[in-house]
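If your schedule permits, I should be very grateful for your opinion on a structural question. What I wish to show you is a protein chain and, alongside it, a tokenised description of its three-dimensional fold. Would you kindly read the sequence against the tokens and tell me how you understand this chain to fold? Here, with my thanks, is the record as I have it:

===
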Amino acid sequence: MNQVVPLPRQGLHEEVVHRLRLRIVEGEIAPGAKLNERELSESLQVSRTPLREAIKMLAAEGLVELLPNRGAVAAQLGRQDVIDAFEVIAGLEGMSGELAAARITDAELAEIRASHYEMLAAYTRRDLPAYYRLNAHIHQSINAAARNPVLAQTYRTVNARLQALRFRSNFDERKWGIAVQEHEQMVEKLAARDGAGLRALLVQHLEHKLDAVLDLMQQGQLQAKA
């Protein structure tokens, strides 16, 4: 188990949110599991006040559910919830890609390329946590390059609910490989300023993610909300 580093006073709230989010996204806290405040306070080495604030923020993001008489639990989506959310995020990512292709700067493109190469290195090591963080950064960078604040806010809201499922969509080795190939094509189309092509590719990419998640649900590797 990784050694817990005490949280610095400065930026304490943001750091608690970050660490708790990672535990949920990467499956250390399973979907539907109760968030035990005492255990989390001890493991994160923080008092319950910043922890409770972090839980509230993650509830606003959709990663946590606050249930009457049960406290906080890691969010768990039903099959139709997953289909509906991926349908929306696919449209948002497609729009982001089309706008980004027209508006991205050379510096932004260079940063995305650098993140892509780091992501490939993580994939080669089969380091899924590092891979996913870089992968998510690339998608967020494309969204930011679209330069549309309304689109950015809507994307963050919907995508927050899907982070844990997007992470798990790479559990299938073959489908993970396909996702990597699609990322190669994304960078190429972005560099070519091919907005229509990038939009279609991103929609396809998210449809493949949905298929991977639904397969995991069917195989019983992902618990679905009843």
Remarks:
- The longest helix spans residues 79-103.
